[in-house]
């Protein structure tokens, strides 16, 4: 699976979001991790019949398509929220949001 | 009271603020090494930054610093969450929440952990850490296990009592036992019980003999420090082997204990030791892989209750000669 964001980069975004109130990019990262897990899982499945093979191909294609779209989505929302793309650092305005929401 | 470990100052502050706003008192820490006794925390939260931290090592460190305080991990999904599952199975953590954290779920997860932590804290004064979880789980079955036993005992306490008031003696003795317990914990052992004017500690795991001897040497060094021993001198005995662990007593009062030949042998060797001396079987000295100066072979010692004599060594303090 070709990836634009490494697992460590996704974990970094999630770590900074921390709590649910400002977690939209983190939720996208979680979805990406789940798609990678799904892709890896079907890769390791047994293929004893033609149907097995077809099922896994269908899952792989859908996972790859969804993964590509969600990675692009993450790229877009990081830009919209003005994250530092190089260091994947959350902007200060977003960091204060969960505390203000109390 | 909650402990919160997070090496990121911003997320630590954010989490502490959210928890405090929900009625919790929070002690923030940058690293587990900052946790110090007396432990007031009913539970500890570790916000793990998996891409920069060794989670397993951090969990182990928390367990060493706060062995009976329930630990809740906050981890990212994916590989860090799968690893956290393994740590849970290895009893390195007691709960896991996936980031980003939903506050109501975090608070729900904390409630039973804090209850468990409070119960363990209340048991803490009567049971060693390894027995507390068993007691809570009503697991009173006796088990057979390998341990290295280390006994310490004050020499000449009767004479000391003659020149001290009773309350002063107890205060001094408790200071000494507290200092000894800290040395045991620092060497990854646990105090099983206090035995009048001494203690019985146990060490587990493949390096247990090494750890026990290292601990005994540290206690021996402490015995030369006038400021610590306050006129009380101790002898030390050590032996390794199989022991039975379980709860001893009647229906209304029980205590956790280790029993068996190894316990008996370690206790006898402790009695044999002179002030400032460690006595141990030669076989255990060799297995410790810890060469020490000041060791002399005692030859075979007849130990009461043992059919055959046991070849033993005594280790003298190199700093002996300090005035009592």
Give, in order, the helices and strands of chain A.
HHHHH
Helix percentage range of chain B: 40-55%
Determine the strand fraction of chain B and express it as a percent band. 25-35%
**Count the strands of chain B?**
13
Q: Could you give a short account of the major beta sheet of chain A?
A: none
Radius of gyration of chain A: 17 Å
What characteristic shape of chain A results from the CA principal axes? elongated
Summing up helix and strand content along with how strands pair, one would put the structural category of chain A as: mainly alpha
Mean pLDDT of chain A: 86
- Rounded to the nearest angstrom, the radius of gyration of chain B is 22 Å
Which key phrases capture this entry?
heterodimer; A: 102 residues; mainly alpha; 69% helix; 0% strand; elongated; B: 324 residues; alpha/beta; 8-stranded mixed β-sheet; 5-stranded parallel β-sheet; 11 helices; 13 strands; 40% helix
Helices and strands in order, then pairings?
The complex is a heterodimer of chains A (102) and B (324).
Chain A: H1 7-17, H2 24-43, H3 50-80, H4 92-95, H5 97-100
Chain B: E1 2-5, H1 9-21, E2 26-29, E3 43-47, H2 55-65, E4 71-75, H3 79-89, E5 95-98, H4 103-123, H5 129-136, E6 143-155, H6 157-163, H7 166-186, E7 190-194, E8 198-203, H8 208-223, H9 226-229, E9 233-249, E10 254-259, H10 261-272, E11 278-281, H11 282-288, E12 295-301, E13 310-315
Parallel strand pairs in B: 1-2, 1-3, 3-4, 4-5, 9-11
Antiparallel strand pairs in B: 6-8, 6-9, 7-8, 9-10, 11-13, 12-13
Helix pairs in contact in B: 7-8, 8-11
């Amino acid at each position: 699976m070709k990836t634009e964001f490494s697992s460590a980069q996704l974990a970094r975004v999630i770590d900074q979001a921390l709590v649910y109130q400002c977690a939209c990019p983190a939720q996208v990262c979680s979805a990406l991790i789940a798609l990678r897990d799904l892709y890896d899982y079907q890769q390791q499945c047994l293929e004893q019949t033609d149907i097995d093979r077809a099922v896994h191909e269908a899952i792989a294609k859908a996972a790859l398509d969804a993964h590509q779209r969600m990675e692009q989505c993450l790229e877009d929302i990081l830009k919209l929220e003005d994250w530092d793309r190089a260091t994947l650092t959350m902007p200060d305005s977003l960091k204060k949001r969960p505390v203000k929401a109390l | 009271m909650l402990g919160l470990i997070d090496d990121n100052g911003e997320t630590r502050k954010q989490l502490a603020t959210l928890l405090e706003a929900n009625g919790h008192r929070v002690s923030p820490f940058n690293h587990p090494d900052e946790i110090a006794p007396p432990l007031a925390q009913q539970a500890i939260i570790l916000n793990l930054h998996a891409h920069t931290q060794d989670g397993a090592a951090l969990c182990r460190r928390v367990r060493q610093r706060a062995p009976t305080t329930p630990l809740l991990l906050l981890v990212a999904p994916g590989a860090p969450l799968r690893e956290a599952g393994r740590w849970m199975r290895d009893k390195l953590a007691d709960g896991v929440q996936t980031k980003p954290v939903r506050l109501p779920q975090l608070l729900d997860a904390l409630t039973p952990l804090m209850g468990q932590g409070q119960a363990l804290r209340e048991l803490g004064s009567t049971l060693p850490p390894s027995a507390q979880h068993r007691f809570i789980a009503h697991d009173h079955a006796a088990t057979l296990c390998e341990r290295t036993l280390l006994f310490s005992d004050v020499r000449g306490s009767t004479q000391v009592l003659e020149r001290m008031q009773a309350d002063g003696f107890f205060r001094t003795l408790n200071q000494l036992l507290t200092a000894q317990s800290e040395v045991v914990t620092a060497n990854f052992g646990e105090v099983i019980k206090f035995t009048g004017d001494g203690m019985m500690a146990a060490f587990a795991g493949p390096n247990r003999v090494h750890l026990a001897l290292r601990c005994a040497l540290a206690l021996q060094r402490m015995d030369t420090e006038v400021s610590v021993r306050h006129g009380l001198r101790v002898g030390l005995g050590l032996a390794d082997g199989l022991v039975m662990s379980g709860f001893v007593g009647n229906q209304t009062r029980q205590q956790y204990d280790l029993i068996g030949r190894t316990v008996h042998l370690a206790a006898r060797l402790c009695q044999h030791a002179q002030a400032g001396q460690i006595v141990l079987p030669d076989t255990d000295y060799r297995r410790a892989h810890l060469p020490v100066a000041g060791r002399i072979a005692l030859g075979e010692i007849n130990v009461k209750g043992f059919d055959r004599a046991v070849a033993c060594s005594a280790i003298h303090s190199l700093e002996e000669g300090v005035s009592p």
